[in-house]
C-alpha cells in the first residue's frame, strides 16, 4: 500500500501498523468475520486430511463448526489459549474483554460474551497486523486443546 500502513509482516491480512490504535470493538468486528472463516477452513482442511471418503455433508460440517464459533465455544477456546499468548496479545484480549458496551448478549452468559469478544479482538488484531501465521498456529493449537462439551445449563463457561 502506498499510504504507509504496511508493517511488512507478510502473510494474509492488511498488515496495518494502525491495528494497535483501533478500538477493541473494531478489532472484534473484524475478528468475528476472520474467526468464522478460519475455523471453517481449519475444520475443512482437517476432514480432507483425514482421508477415508472426504468430508461430510454441510449439515455435519455445520454441527462441528457451530459450537466452535458460538460465544461459549470462543470463551472456552480463549481459556485454552491464554497460557500460549504473548503479553501484548493478552493485553489486546484484556482491553476488549473489559471494554464498555451497551450490547446485551442474547444467547450467551455475560462472562462468556466478554471472553468471546476478547478472542475476536485478538483474532482481528493478528489478522489486521498481517500475523496470520501466528493466528493460524494459535487456532490450530487451541482447537486441538478445545473441549467440545456443551456449556452448563446456565450458559456458563
Give me the secondary-structure topology.
Layout: H1 24-49, H2 58-69, H3 71-81, H4 87-98, H5 110-128, H6 132-145
Helix pairs in contact: 1-2, 1-4, 1-5, 3-5, 3-6, 4-5
Describe the structure.
The protein is an all-alpha fold and about 160 residues long. The protein has one domain: Ribonuclease iii, N-terminal Endonuclease Domain, Chain A (Orthogonal Bundle), CATH 1.10.1520. Helices cover about 60% and strands about 0% of the residues. It contains six helices and no strands.
Mean pLDDT: 81
The chain-level structural class is mainly alpha
**Total number of domains:** 1
Strand content: under 5%
User: What's the SSE pattern?
Assistant: HHHHHH
- For the secondary structure, the number of strands is 0
User: Ends: how far apart?
Assistant: 42 Å
What is the tally of helical segments? 6
Q: Low-confidence stretches at least 5 residues in length (pLDDT < 50)? A: 1-10, 149-157
Helix content: 55-70%
In the CATH hierarchy, what is the class? Answer: Mainly Alpha
| Rg over alpha carbons | 16 Å
CATH topology: Ribonuclease iii, N-terminal Endonuclease Domain, Chain A
CATH architectural grouping = Orthogonal Bundle
Query: In the CATH hierarchy, what is the superfamily?
Result: Ribonuclease III domain
Cα shape: globular
Largest sheet: none
EC number: 3.1.26.-
Cofactor: Mg(2+)
Subcellular location: Cytoplasm
Keywords: Cytoplasm, Endonuclease, Hydrolase, Magnesium, Nuclease, Ribosome biogenesis, RNA-binding, rRNA processing, rRNA-binding
